[in-house]
Structures are given as structure tokens and as C-alpha cells.
Amino acid sequence: MARELKARYRGSVLGVFWSFVNPLLLLLVYTFVFTVVLPGVHPPELQPFAIFMFCGILPWAWFSSSLLEASNVLIAGGTLIRKVLFPAEVLPIVTVLAGLVHFCLGLPILAAFLLYYQVPIVWSDLLWFPVIVATQLVLTLGLALLLSALAVHFRDLRDLLSNLLTLWFFATPIIYALSQAPASVRRFLLLNPFTHLAVSYQEVLFRAGRFTDWPRLLAVAAASLVVLAIGYLVFDRLRDTLAEEV
Q: Under 8 Å CB-to-CB from 24, ≥6 apart: which residues?
């Protein structure tokens, strides 16, 4: 995983510090847009809106980048795959774990802004935070294993995935609150597992004392274990064909 992190920033001046700088710059841009360019366009309970949105953007960046990189990681690591004793599943797993590290490095930036804007914290809700992260980790690992193996055989999957992730992003209440969606649309949004992850992050970190989505979070956690099992089974089934296809 250390090699993955070093490779991402090889040749840059700041190196791994970009993991801090990128979320800081992103949050500063959102703060400028929603306080100077578009002030007061969202309900008062969602202010400062840049912080609310960042609570969803940060985990989404981990999720989407992990899946996009996982869809190409086996092809890019073809020389390793051809080695008889090399466990191919390590590559997508490391990709997801590297994304988790970047997510964790972005949390201090989010925490600093939460303190600056004096967003109240309910510690009993915050205890759910590791559960939310663990649920996202399991879900992302399962999808990464599945996509990495399938993308070796179906190369068009990588291009299709980028478009699907764009649709998935807008079908997740990140740049809007779930309550703002029309009731007819909300029923479909609730079928999206990342909806409950995003809402959980928002309620635990931003909307103190309002963590009501925990039953759905636990349901997503159970479903994520199933996705992980399916992802690994598919990966293991295709393992013998990977070296030939890459």
C-alpha cells in the first residue's frame, strides 16, 4: 500500500501532502461558492452548506476513485499477475485501502472546518462513525474485486463505469439533502446503498443528534457483506483466466 501511495505522487513537490492540500482546496472552493456566489440558496439547517456537502463528497471520492482504479489495476499490473505465486486480489484490495488512507487524511481538514463553524458534535452519534467507514470499506472491496476481474474480460466496462458513477453521484444525496428530493424520486434514492452511507455521514458529522438512519445503515452493512462474498467468488472463479487476458 505504501508503494501505491508513493506512486500516486511520484515526481510532485508536495508528495503525500497533496492528500491534505486537495481536500483543503476543494473545501475552500465550495465555501467560496456557497457563501459568496450562491449565498442562502439552501435551507438554514444545511448551513454552512459547503461543510454539509463535503461530508458526502469526501467518502464519495474514496468510493468512486477506488472503483475506477480497480477497473484497470489488473490490466496495469499484468506483469505481476503472470507470476504464479502472486495473489491477484491484492491489487484491487490495495487500491481500496490506499483510497481509505486518503479519506482519513482528509478528515482532519473536515474536522477543522467543523470546529471553525462551531458545528455541534454529539459523541453518542460519533461512535457510529467507525461502523459507517467499515460498511463503506466492505462494500467498496466487494465491488472492486468484482469490477477488477470483469474488466479484464470486458474492457468496455472501464468506460461504462465512469458514466455510471456520474449517474450514481447525482442519484446520491450529496449536493442536496434527501429531504429536498420529491417524494416520488426519494423512493428510488432509498434503493441506492450509498444514499444511506452519505446520509449517515451527514447526520453523524453535520446534523448533530439526528442520526435516525442507523437501521438502514445496518441493512447496508449486511448487504455489503453479501456483495463482498459475491465479489470474491467471481474473482476467484476468473482467477485462472486473468493471466491469459492481461
A: 109
Instruction: Of 103-112, 118-127, 206-215, give the range with the top mean pLDDT.
Output: 103-112
Confidence of residue 122 (pLDDT cuts 50, 70, 90): confident
Q: Which residues of 207-236 are buried (b: 16+ CB within 10 A; e: fewer)?
A: bbeebebbebbeebbebbeebbeebbebbe
Distances (CA, A) of 8 to 23, 81, 151, 191: 16, 20, 21, 34
Query: Which residues, at least 6 apart from 59, have a Cβ–Cβ distance to it below 8 Å?
Result: 103, 136, 197, 198, 201
CA distance 206 to 120: 8
Omega prior to 44 cis, within 30 of 0: no
Question: Is the C-alpha dihedral spanning 33, 46, 21, 97 positive or negative?
Answer: negative
Whole-model pTM: value is 0.87
Q: Is the pLDDT of residue 184 over 70?
A: yes
Distance CA 239, CA 210 (A): 45
Residue 99's Cα: distance from chain center in Å? 8
Q: How many domains does the chain have?
A: 1
Cell of 119: 458545528
pLDDT of residue 213: 83
> How many CB atoms are closer than 10 A to CB 27?
21
Those residues whose C-beta lies under 8 Å from the C-beta of residue 102, and which sit 6 or more positions away, are: 19, 61, 62, 65
Segments forming the whole domain that contains residue 209: 2-245
Q: What's the CA gap between 199 and 216, in Å, rounded?
A: 10
What single letter denotes the amino acid at residue 5? L
Angstrom CA distances, 49 to 9, 12, 41, 196, stand at: 31, 32, 9, 19
